[in-house]
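Long-time lurker, first post. I've been practising inverse folding by hand and with some scripts of my own, and I keep getting stuck on stretches where the structure tokens seem ambiguous. Below is the full token string for one chain I'm working on. Before anyone asks, I'm not after the true native sequence, just a reasonable design that respects the backbone. If someone could post their per-position residues I'd love to compare against what I wrote down in my notebook.
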């Protein structure tokens, strides 16, 4: 039971650190609450096609090794605009340009464990 208490605290701390790290790269970062919501969205919504562990499913793997040789800008465009003719929908209604770039950075580094 004690472990459950610490998970949200650790996760909130990670989200805040990730937001600060991104801010250091010059782009606006989501605040800790928004960062937590975005990570949850990625885990659940993206995970429904890419696998809850991001190892792939209907969609390809989103693990760091699978994204290492991909252009971050192209990945951001796919995230925002989708891929016509595939199951990949556009997420621009839910994410800003900066948030999409932040998500790509998170995926390239590896999402935190929940």
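-- Answer (accepted) --
I ran through it position by position. Result:
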């Amino acid at each position: 039971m004690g472990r459950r208490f610490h998970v949200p605290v650790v996760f909130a701390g990670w989200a805040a650190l990730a937001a600060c790290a991104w801010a250091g790269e010059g782009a606006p970062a989501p605040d800790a609450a928004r960062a937590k919501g975005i990570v949850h969205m990625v885990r659940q919504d993206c995970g429904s096609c890419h696998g809850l562990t991001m190892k792939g499913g209907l969609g390809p793997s989103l693990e760091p090794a699978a994204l290492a040789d991909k252009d971050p800008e192209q990945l951001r465009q796919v995230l925002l605009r989708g891929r016509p003719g595939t199951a990949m929908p556009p997420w621009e209604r839910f994410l800003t340009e900066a948030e999409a770039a932040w998500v790509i950075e998170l995926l390239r580094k590896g999402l935190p464990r929940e």
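A couple of notes from the structure itself: The two ends are 15 Å apart (CA to CA). Residues 2-23 form the longest helix (22 residues). Happy to go over any region you disagree with.
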